[in-house]
Amino acid sequence: MGPLSRETWAQRLGAFRASPSAFMAGPEGEDLGRDLLNELRSEKLSEQTKVSLLALSLEYPAQLWPDAAAAEAAATSLLDTLVLLPPRPSALRRPLLLAATTALAAGNALGPTSGASRRLLPLLLGLASGRDLGRGFGPASEQRPLQATACECLRELESCKPGLLGGCLGLLRSLLGQEGPVQPLSLLLALALRNTLVIQARARAGLQGLLVAGDMPAAGGPWNWTLAEEGDANLQPQAPSWPAAEEEECGLAVLEPSPEEARELRAAVAQLLDTSYLLTPVAQAQLLWLLGWALRGLRGQPPVLFKPQLVRLLGTAQLTLLHAVLALKAAFGEALFTAQDEALLLRRLTLAAQHPALPLPAHLFYLHCLLNFPENWPLGPTGEETAPLLLGPRLCRGLLPSLLHDPSALLAHLHLLCLLCAEDEEKEEKGQDWCPRHYLGELLAGLRQRAALHGGPRALATLCFQASYLVVHCLATQPTVLTPLTHGLARLYRARPALAPHFVDLLDRVGPELGEPLRTALRQEVVSRPGRDEALRWHLQILSKVADGKAPSATLGFLRAAAAHCTDWGLQQALLQVCRALLRAGVGEGLADLLQALARHLEDPDGRDHARLYYILLAHLAGPKLGVALGPSLAAPALTSSLVAENQGFAAVLMVQEAPAPMRLSVGPRRAAGPVPVLQLQVEVLEPLYSVELRFRVEGQLYAPLGAVHVPCLLPGRPCRPLHLPLQPRRPAPAQLAVRALFATPAGLTCHAHLPPLPVNFADLFLPFPRAPDGDKQGFFEELWDSCLPEGAESRLWCPLGPQGLEALVARHLDPFVVVAQPPTSYHVAIRLPPASRLLLRLEAAQGDGVPVALRTDDWAVLPLAGDYLRGLSAAV
Amino acid sequence: MAQRAVWLISHEPGTPLCGTVRFSRRYPTVEKRARVFNGTSYVPIPEDGPFLKALLFELRLLDDDKDFVESRDSCSHINKTSVYGLLVGGGELWPVVAFLKNNMIYACVPLVEQTLSPRPPLISISGISQSFELLFGIQDFLHLGQKNDTELNTKLNQLPDLLLQACPFGTLLDANLQNSLDSINFASVTHPQKQPAWKVGTYKGKPQVSISITEKVKSMQYDKQDIADTWQVVGAVTCKCDLEGIMPNVTISLSLPTNGSPLQDILVHPCVTSLDSAILTSSSIDAMDDSAFSGPYKFPFTPPLESFNLCYYTSQVPVPPILGFYQMKEEEIQVKITVNLKLHESVKNNFEFCEARIPFYNRGPITHVEYKVSFGQLEVFREKSLLIWIIGQKFPKSMEISLSGTVTFGAKSHEKQPFDEICIGGTAYLKLHFKILDYTLTGCYADQHSVQVFASGKPKISTHRKLISSDYYIWNSKAPAPITYGSLLL
């Protein structure tokens, strides 16, 4: 793209700023970063336009140069542009330095391998130290502002890569002592010092003379990245998180500087503090946060160094300064603030929280600080807002809420009042006319009065309910507060039923202390005024929230009366919602009649259907199931429409849900007895299951259809008796059983799961013959043997024996079927195979590794199965 | 301790979006740190459009609050500070420091150098106070001497350059943006060593020191047996020191006459170098007694170049300057009013102006007024439902004046009459507006001879004083009125 005019650029920048993501996704997006860098060297554009281009790059480097390589290239280009500037005054040098710094730091390109970093860092350090960089680098008049800018750039780089300047501490100290610009150098030194201390402490190394070490790195010489590499792993907060929260994290306690190092450190800190009055207030505050963090927990570094600054700071109204003093208070506690100092600080804070000369946001912040005041000896639990011990009612007098306050101010002051009331519980009964609690009551009444105004803004109602919630939250145990509050809220509802959504919200969020009495009061409030009313829909909304098993007749009476006025769909649904709530609460008597009446008389077919459904549910479902059926839907917790949620709830409860298999089935030991083969099933479950029904289906119709097995309850970890599954084979053949389980979960859902198929083996079908007459077993066997032919089949095969020998093999697999035995060499075995087959075996004259088996059967189809069975016996364990 | 982004948004009720982003600035290097520090709780800074929408919703500045919206109206959604959480892009951006002032919303997001879940208390976040200072600084800059939209636009156009000076990387260097503006202009001056950062150049010219004391008096008067009237004086001492040298030292003493009311709750400018402990501890929280420190109040300081507020104070004078009562009774569509005002004899009876404004809220326009005034004249603003009783420059010799009358109202039209949440039914007030030049209620003055200047040349010293009213309410004594806790401590 050719050079663009000023106007085109203005347009382009405007479009970009309106929505950077949309612009970058558009046709011009891709080229913007490259164009911008090129245009900076254009002769045609004014400096002002170029500054605006650089301003864009300061804000959106990630969009312009999305990866580290692009950022590196951009920084290189920016540095090239900088050195190519003619040696006359230019407004571009400063923003170019800032832009190159931003590109490197934000683009993850800063590091020892980055060529741009290797160029930028020595340049910045050279500028910061006021060294003459030659005539090429700008006129003398710009030296001073560029020196400050270079310090700022270095500080930003140090912030993003702690330890970067660890090797320059000595240099920075000496610059500060000479004639460098005080503020940029002070802040830079403080940050570098803090970071160095943290990194060295973590590495359990001393300061190693870093504070006094020498001069600047030789021009062109390599930058020392050692500390930065160590600090890189863990970006450090510039200011500590509140010390009490993470004493451990501070990590400085392990650093024990040598006496000499300690002296140097003290000197450096004192040097910074002594000139701190030359810094702007916000910069002073930063310095104090940094130094406080640096010295916290450092052995042999008493915080008295800060003491001379405190009185000056306490007198100001400056928010950052007072905040920094609080940070020092939190960091050093009694070591820096005696009890008297603490009291004074608290008084100044109290004063600042109400001083008419300060703006409201400052008041509110100070009030927050009061309730989170870092006391020397805190009594209450940490992490909760409390009024500090020294903040008695007298100090608080000007901090109490008034109806004239803004909403957030009112809530903030109300919180303090609640805390005072909570503390004051025991002193209460002394009969003061205007005790805090009385005042609280009046205030809440005033809020309710305003909320009750018809047509008043919603914000007033919201404020009233927020205040009520806050009071309940703080004073839940005080009936003297809650009782009038309950009554007041009930009166508010009477005055303005349109606030029903706020009441429902409040009931959802408060505990039973207010919730229970308020429910009762609201229910009475609603049911005591039946009939047609503008507010009917609000009444129904409230009732659906508060209707429970108590006094159902009054509620039902109200509903019967209301039904006549529920002419539109919405009202009918609201009415049915209440019925639903009553169903859930287990109200049966009277409700059935009402539902039947509704199912007949409601105008809307949807309403009638719903009423009928509820009636059917009431008639057919037992209490717990009903509760679950109507309970909040687990399937759709995010849906706000109760109807949709309800439908989903029904769908979930009344329909069978597909679920992953919650149990494992296996076939247990055989039980060869009885008229038919019976599988013994063993069950293990992963979760409690109720009303379990196992359904089996035989593939290929080999057996007659199988009956289901029912188990009332299965609990994990509790052994269950084996389940018996009788088989009725149509042919004596092994098969696969497909298994499905139906069950109810503890949540009341009915589920359905497919289980892995169960194999039925050939041997599972074996049954013994009825017992032979005692005397003539051999004859009985021979008779069977002979009866197989001529229809049947005969075969001989070799049955391999394992090391255990024939006797063990028979005992293990064939024992129930042995008719004649001459251990250990000869066994005659007769097996009945339902429905009507037989298998006869003669195992005789066993040799070392096997036994010849003569077998006969009356069923041809059995022969191969029997063969496989016998050959597999020795392998079967 | 840094800012991730800052916005200025003009609030424009009635327009489709209800506001426009007038200025925004993001700090990507800080954002990068935020991502590391906040970890999984990190929520990126949104683009201007979504931010505007989310902020206006949270601040209730969208026109639509007809329906209950849980995320805004829930009783547990309690905000006790000017710090908010905004729902943007599926996450909650927190902490957003924001406030509305003169139809402009000032907002910024400070860096929190830890995880945001659970939320750390605000007091532990160093960037929070910096956010406030930045926003206050921008606010001061925009409204200093600003008279119209053109000037506002000019100043808004200067903001990018100013923030490039005052907050180049998101860490605020100077909340005084005027100072930054000067530093751009002073850029060519070679600075000598130990130049304070808050003073960008040196003054050249005739030395002069100007001190002006402005006291504002506010009051709540009820004329009721069981409720105490309250009043309070708030003073501000403004200085402009045109003195040569880098660090001239100045000491200003504020004095009180023998029966003057002690100054309390003194807050000083950061340039004040030391403070007497009596000044630091004199506070309105304590019970007043004769031993209260009554000056002189010495303030040694090194002045900045610009005009600045050397200190603020409050004071509890024994009586309010004007004591009055206001009785209003409703009778169907009209109200009967009686007002009586009495100037205290100790007060200088020479006003620049003095008037009583009597508004009637939540009613229709005034259709008819019958009245009698013992002094001054009454102006009727029918559409605004407002009476203004212009008392003028002096109270009569009796020091007491009265007004009585009957006001009739037309039908209320909701569109034109804004709703007032305080003045409902009989609850009503009149508000006094007055100004007295060369006078302070406390008696506080800066003696020219007590001003010490340690600089070359003898400066010309000028002092000014004035008293103005601020929130001076007299409530209808025939109906309930909003009270503060202080009014109950008779």
Report on this model:
Chain A has 877 residues and is α+β, with helices and mostly antiparallel strands. Chain A folds into seven domains: 1-160; 163-240 and 251-297, no CATH class; 304-373, no CATH class; 404-425 and 433-528; 550-626, no CATH class; 654-763, Immunoglobulin-like (Sandwich), CATH 2.60.40; 766-873, 2-Layer Sandwich (TATA-Binding Protein). Chain A is 51% helix and 11% strand. Chain A contains 36 helices and 14 strands. In chain A, strands 9, 10, 11, 12, 13 and 14 form a six-stranded antiparallel beta sheet that branches. In chain A, 44% of the residues are buried. Chain B is of the alpha+beta class. The longest helix of chain B has 18 residues, at 126-143. Chain B has a nine-stranded mixed beta sheet with strand order 9-11-7-6-22-19-14-17-16. In chain B, a hairpin with a 2-residue loop joins β4 (91-101) and β5. In chain B, α4 runs antiparallel to α5 (149-166) and α5 packs across α6 (177-185). At the A-B interface, α4, α7, α9, α15 and α16 of A face β2, α1, α3, β4 and α4 of B. Chain A: Residues 261-626 form the AP5B1 middle domain. Chain A: This is AP-5 complex subunit beta-1. Chain A: Residues 35-104 form the AP-5 complex subunit beta-1 N-terminal domain.
